[in-house]
Amino acid sequence: MEVEWISLILKTGKFKIYKNRPSDQFSISGNVIRSITEDKDHDMWIGTWDAGLNCFDRKSGKFFHYFPDKNDSSSISGRTIWNLTIDKRQFIMVSQLCSWHGFI
């Protein structure tokens, strides 16, 4: 059974379903969601199980993806995100197995 991320749009009271579509580079990268937080710009940051970190830009309706990159020391360290939080400086704090990673 495929797990889908369902978002309730409070203004309209309607549901919108977002799920991974491999042919769409701007769909969410995975369908198993571990954590969600909202930043000051009202973009949603979504941590997934084994599909990296996503940022949902509400204005464009697109998801932008962040994955580990062994050649980039500032990238996330793994594909599974356990928890997300935003500190008072607006840094996205990413919790992964055995590590915390600060991300702007």
Characterization of this structure:
The chain has 104 residues and is mainly β. It has one domain. Helices cover 0% and strands 43% of the residues. The strands form 3 sheets. It has a 4-stranded antiparallel beta sheet with strand order 3-4-5-6, with no helix packed on it. A 3-stranded antiparallel beta sheet has the order 7-8-9, with no helix packed on it. A two-stranded antiparallel sheet has the order 1-2. It is globular. The model has no long low-confidence stretch (mean pLDDT 84).
Write the layout of secondary structure elements.
Blueprint: E1 5-9, E2 14-18, E3 33-38, E4 44-48, E5 53-57, E6 62-66, E7 83-86, E8 92-96, E9 99-103
Antiparallel strand pairs: 1-2, 3-4, 4-5, 5-6, 7-8, 8-9
Count, helices: 0
Query: Main sheet: which strands, in order across?
Result: 3-4-5-6
Task: Name the quaternary structure.
Answer: single chain
What is the β-strand count?
9
**Mean pLDDT figure:** 84
Give the CA-CA distance, first to last residue: 34 Å
Q: Helix coverage percent of residues?
A: under 10%
C-alpha geometry: globular
Cα Rg: 14 Å
Count of structural domains: 1
Low-confidence stretches: none
Percent of residues in β-strands = 35-45%
Q: Please state the structural category.
A: mainly beta
Order of helices and strands: EEEEEEEEE
Biggest sheet, in brief?
4 strands, antiparallel
Characteristics of this structure?
single chain; 104 residues; mainly beta; four-stranded antiparallel beta sheet; three-stranded antiparallel beta sheet; 0% helix; 43% strand
Task: Provide a concise account of the structure shown.
With 104 residues, this protein is mainly β. The protein contains no helices and 9 strands.
